[in-house]
Amino acid sequence: MKKLHIINYGMNAVLKRKGMLVLSLIMSAVAFFLVNYFLLETDRTELYRKAFEKATGLDADKVFFLDVRAREEKTFSSAVLGKQLTELGLCQACGAYREYADGERVTVFYDAQMVEWFDVKDDRGQRIDLTVTPGQYIPVYVGEAYRQEYPVGSLVTIDDCDYVVKGVLQQSRRIIPDPSQMDVGSIYLSDYVLVAPILSEDYEASYLLAGSGPDHSEIGKTLAGEGLAGYRISFGDLQKSYQKSNDEENRILKSLSAVIICSVLILGFVLASYLISCNTYDYAVHYANGFQVSDIFLMVVTENVFRLFLGAVCGVIAMNIRIGVVYGSGRASVIRDVMLSQQLGKTGLLVLLLALAVGALASIAPMIRIARLNLTDYFRAEE
Amino acid sequence: MLKVENLTKTYGKGDSRVDALRGISFTVNDGEMVAVMGRSGAGKSTLLNILGCMDTPTGGSYTLDGIEVNKLSAKERNRFRRDHVGFVFQNFALMGQYSLLENVELPLVAKDVRKAERRRIAMDALKSVGLTGKADRNPARVSGGQQQRAAIARAIAGGNNLILADEPTGALDYSTGAEVMELFRDLQKSGKTIVIVTHEKEIADKCDRILYISDGKVSETL
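Output (structure tokens, whole complex):
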């Protein structure tokens, strides 16, 4: 019998057994989702790094955060410093922000470069415009949660200054509850913040985000030359400390993911074996009606791999729904692209190989059973 | 013609050795319908499995249509089975997710027959057992007698001359069983060779001959 014919027949057989198909799809999708989730989550620093590179076109190795926070007795403008660094050719891009909390309401002040960098959009899909025009109110964009409280065109008082609401921020942006947890490629936004432009007089407690300098030590020297020694300045140290704090978490997550992957594999094998044991009757019927052992083996493998493949497709869809929900559709599309490329890359390959291995391994069991089967007794016992 | 000479089958070794068949010999001519009877454990299933090329004898020879089956390799034997033998089982062995027509097509799928041709042959086979109008039905939605008819249609759809039936009426009531036997009789008239394993004397009496198997030997031939 032609092998392609058998493969086609095996796939049709999978689609015919609808109840079993639904069960196995759900199980496979969950398994694939879990494997993906833990593999990707353990590697999220790398993920954001790639997302950042794709979004900005900058080399992530040369991008760093300057965590410059003014101390009580001294002030300086991180925005001005960023501008200086850019003019000196030490940065290709920079941005500054500070935050101001008024009760539960938090306002984050970003400079125009920063929102442009991160492509922050309003609910109409337009990039937000933080341009300050002399003689007019300073613009502010409100999170979705404040849509009713601060309608477009209304005035908002922030830190004793009046702002006019220009729009509502696009929903479901990535939420970073604590700015110190910002990492490469992320921006502090949520449905509960107000976004306003940073002003040159906003000296204190502002952070500077700088990118793509040729050498961190040169920036350090420049900062020292500007009389900024004594400030807590970290070039990339933020990343390092972030990485360090994540190492332990990653180690735990990796152990956990190893356990989960093993569990998924075992569960997958058990499920596949169960499905096959349910199908042994059908395989025996095929055998009794002239199918060769090799035909049945190919059919079993085809069925298993096809079922797992369909499950993997469901898993990818589930994964993307999750990404959409968590990261939103704006800048997150970049993350999704990177995640997908990773899925299609190492994760996808790994999962595909696992699916093939589980499918092939699980296919051995029924073949041993069918080879030892006494068909006449078998079809009598089924009565 | 089916010819068995001094056929033996032994399972196990030493103390656990069981002689299922102890040198049985018989012949079934083309177009003949023969019943095989015997008590449970007498060796009927073993004989049927060997005749159906699903098991090999320990000794003796088995010749079907001039070919000594026990000298074939496992692969050749499987192909031989596909091309020469059709099975009918006690519980019908139909697949629930397929229609009767698709079940009947199964041996033709194994023979790599094209779909349109498959459909035509399977429909002809269903017609010959009186199930034309129920081709698209699921096996669960027809009666036991109709399921067995479909199983018989499947056994003949492949065009094989030897039909081996294992307790074909065992799951049916008397009148339905009688109808199925009529169907076998019709098949016999069309030239098929039929071997039926049964423990029902009334069924066996409808065959041309009865082979009694006892303790692994053919003790009586009527």
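Strands of chain A lie at 64-66, 93-102, 105-110, 138-142, 155-158, 161-168, 193-197, 206-211.
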